[in-house]
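Course assignment 3, question 2. Fill in each field.
Student: A.L.
Task: Predict the tertiary structure for the chain below.
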Amino acid sequence: MMSTRDPVPLELRDLRDSIDNIDAAIVYLLAERFRCACKVGKLKARQGMLATDPEREAEQVARLRHLAALSKLAPDFVEKVFRFVDLSCGIGELEQISNNVCN
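Answer field:
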């Protein structure tokens, strides 16, 4: 077992660096998604459209579940993540989550 004084193996450091880069990319992608969702919401409001589109949401879930399976991720997990992100935009939390991303 390694103590806190032992150097971190190079392979572990490289893997952690990769995870850090992926996490940063996820944050930037979420910000971009929230920007797009905000624009969609404003456009729908101007056009007098409903805020939700159950048919499109179902298509998205099916598409993402398929991509998850292709990527060897659990489709249920990916669907839960998508629904969390999507619902966050739809229940008035967008401003709180995005911190002025829409402006």
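Instructor remarks: The domain at 10-98 is CATH 1.20.59.10 (Chorismate Mutase Domain, subunit A). The radius of gyration is 19 Å.
Grade: pending
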